[in-house]
Structure prediction request, 152 residues.
Amino acid sequence: MLKASLMKRDGWRGDTIYEVTEENGAAAGTINETRNTIELDGQSYTIKRKGFLSPEAELRLGDTIVAAAKQKPLFNHYKLAHNGKEWDFKAISLLVNQFGLYEGERQVGTVSLGDLAHRFKDITIDLPPELPREVQVFLLALAIHAWSQQSS
Prediction:
């Protein structure tokens, strides 16, 4: 299980950065939502977004696509493709404070905001270990992007 927390911004124009940690508090990496980048385990990944009505996002390590997600038009529902396999990643509640990862009809994991007082300070990532950490953090970045769009 991973955790994430919004870090303090450096001024009003600073980048929006989330620190990703292990369950025991050890640093694992960061997500820079402003620049669409992920730093994880010494690797630098980029998130390339394209499209408007049915947006797509790709997690890239250099020129290699590690994972891709395509959003259903007007819904917080993504089709995740990684390593020849597909999952559904979608909002569980109407308030969209939790996303579930589904393999077929079976829910296999969640990404959840913290309580109302600590929404972006206590995010929990509980996804299956068969998904590499970089893909887990990519899903977290998709959820953060959806949550940020709601609050702006």
